[in-house]
């Protein structure tokens, strides 16, 4: 039985510049620097606002027309909203379950872009929360997880409950629970009648996650997918931008809680069909940030605003991303990585390397938390006997001259 979750990690010795048309800087956000801002998409327009300039909560809302590259100010938000939960359904946005600076909220609002009017809807009946995940399906909205935080005691809680909201009767119903750990700020995407959700962290971000799940929206079944292995340099993280194109999930501006700034500007691609990850080193030409906006319109992604806490910089820029080119451009520049062959059973790993990678390559067997158990020198063809290790999951990593090339998880049975 083959039990392996593959992760391709492509690390470049030099920075790689994507084609000029892959990332395009667009008109700056006119509302000034902003982070923790809300965002949602209605049709071809992106809406963002609220949040904080640096420390002051704002109520402004702005519409970005992706066709004309023009920003227009709209009606102010009905209350202080940051770290919000939002979802578009049938031309309206539903926004709430946010943070107002002192507490989590139960508020739930509808925004009608045609009339530019906010309408109060039924409060969320569960515990107040912020940064829950959401998706729309069959004319209903689903909410997963989220967090609450007590500023007085400096403690927080995260949730893994799932709720359904029906806009037709303005009613909430509690459903089952999410199969992973309770969390906030997990990203969620829908493709081919499946929900993909993962990453995120605890309320205080003391623990952050790298696992991922799919949910069959028709058959209502959960499946665990290939996690991003918890390596010492890149333990796990939160995602500022997540998009999907041609069965590839594309993650940009990830907060990996790492110390080296050159780890921030990677682009992470998950191949749904192959259950494999690819990481493109230093491939994002836009400045790294967290807690900005990230939205998708058609085959284009848009990101902007946010905060770089490594260098204490706030942003008001806007970037357009060609998702098709991002998914293929760097991969095509390094064809030798596609020639790496790794087959695994529950007792053996068989590795074949292309000639360019023969010298100074090694394989590491690690525990799930990143502790190195054994090193192996690699050549053209190498077989690793896993029977010397106790039964359980392990991380394997291939390095070329200390640069991580490929990594994944194998279960020894």
How many β-strand stretches?
34
What is the CATH architecture assignment of the largest domain? Answer: 6 Propeller
Query: What is the CATH class name of the largest domain?
Result: Mainly Beta
Main pleated sheet: 9 strands, mixed
Q: Which word captures the global form? A: globular
If you consult CATH, what is the topology of the largest domain?
Neuraminidase
- Summed up, the domain count is 2
Task: Kindly report the name of the CATH homologous superfamily of the largest domain.
Answer: Kelch-type beta propeller
Termini separation comes to 9 Å
Q: Which residue ranges are poorly predicted, with pLDDT under 50 across at least 5 consecutive positions?
A: 1-16, 231-235
Walk across the major sheet and give the strand order. 19-20-21-22-1-34-33-30-31
Strand residue percentage: over 45%
Cα-based radius of gyration, to the nearest Å:
22 Å
**Percent helix among the residues?**
under 10%
Give the overall pLDDT as a whole number.
86
Structural class: mainly beta
Give a quick precis of the structure.
With 413 residues, the protein is an all-beta fold. The chain contains one helix and 34 strands. The strands form eight sheets. The protein has a nine-stranded mixed beta sheet, with helices on one face.
Characteristic key phrases:
413 residues, mainly beta, Neuraminidase, Immunoglobulin-like, 9-stranded mixed β-sheet, 1 helix
What does this structure look like?
This protein is mostly beta strands. The protein has one helix at 323-333; strands spanning 4-10, 23-25, 38-42, 45-49, 61-65, 70-74, 85-89, 92-96, 108-112, 117-120, 133-137, 140-150, 155-166, 171-177, 187-191, 194-198, 212-216, 221-224, 238-245, 248-255, 267-271, 276-280, 293-297, 300-304, 307-308, 313-314, 318-322, 341-344, 348-352, 361-366, 372-377, 381-385, 392-400, 403-412. Strands 19-20-21-22-1-34-33-30-31 form a nine-stranded mixed sheet, with helices on one face. A four-stranded antiparallel sheet has the order 2-27-24-23. Strand 19 and strand 20 (248-255) form a beta hairpin. 41% of the residues are buried. Residues 1-16 and 231-235 have low confidence and may be disordered.
């Amino acid at each position: 039985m083959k039990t392996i979750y593959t992760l391709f990690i492509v690390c470049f010795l030099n920075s790689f510049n994507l084609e000029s048309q892959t990332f395009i800087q667009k008109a700056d956000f006119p509302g000034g620097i902003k982070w923790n801002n809300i965002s949602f998409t209605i049709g071809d327009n992106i809406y963002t606002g609220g949040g904080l300039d640096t420390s002051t909560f704002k109520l402004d809302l702005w519409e970005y027309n992706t066709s004309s590259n023009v920003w227009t100010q709209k009606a102010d938000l009905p209350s202080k909203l940051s770290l919000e939960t939002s979802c578009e359904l049938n031309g309206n946005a539903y926004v709430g379950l946010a943070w107002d600076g002192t507490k989590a909220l139960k508020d739930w609002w509808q925004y009608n872009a045609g009339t530019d009017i906010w309408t109060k809807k039924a409060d969320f009946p569960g515990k107040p929360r912020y940064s829950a995940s959401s998706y729309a399906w069959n004319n209903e909205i689903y909410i997963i997880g989220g967090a609450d935080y007590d500023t007085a005691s400096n403690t927080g809680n995260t949730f893994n409950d799932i709720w359904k909201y029906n806009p037709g009767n303005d009613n909430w119903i509690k459903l089952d629970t999410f199969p992973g750990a309770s969390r906030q700020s997990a990203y969620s995407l829908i493709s081919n009648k499946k929900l993909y959700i993962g990453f995120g962290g605890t309320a205080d971000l003391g623990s952050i996650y790298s696992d991922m799940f799919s949910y069959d929206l028709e058959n209502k079944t959960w499946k665990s997918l290939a996690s991003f292995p918890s390596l010492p340099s890149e333990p796990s993280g939160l995602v500022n931008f997540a998009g999907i194109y041609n069965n590839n999930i594309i993650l940009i501006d990830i907060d990996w809680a790492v110390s080296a700034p050159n780890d921030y500007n990677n682009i992470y691609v998950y191949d749904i069909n192959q259950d494999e990850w690819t990481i493109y080193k230093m491939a994002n030409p836009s400045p790294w940030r967290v807690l900005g906006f990230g939205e998708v319109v058609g085959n284009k992604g848009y990101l902007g605003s946010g905060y770089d806490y490594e260098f204490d910089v706030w942003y008001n820029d806007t970037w357009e991303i060609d998702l098709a080119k991002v998914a293929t451009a760097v991969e095509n520049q390094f064809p030798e990585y596609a020639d790496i062959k790794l087959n695994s059973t529950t007792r053996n790993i068989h590795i074949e390397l292309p000639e360019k990678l023969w010298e100074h390559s090694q394989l590491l067997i690690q525990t799930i938390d990143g502790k190195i158990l054994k090193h192996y020198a690699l050549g053209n063809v190498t077989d690793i006997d896993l029977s010397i290790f106790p039964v359980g999951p392990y991380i394997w990593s291939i390095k070329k001259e200390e640069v991580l090339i490929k990594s994944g998880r194998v279960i020894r049975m």
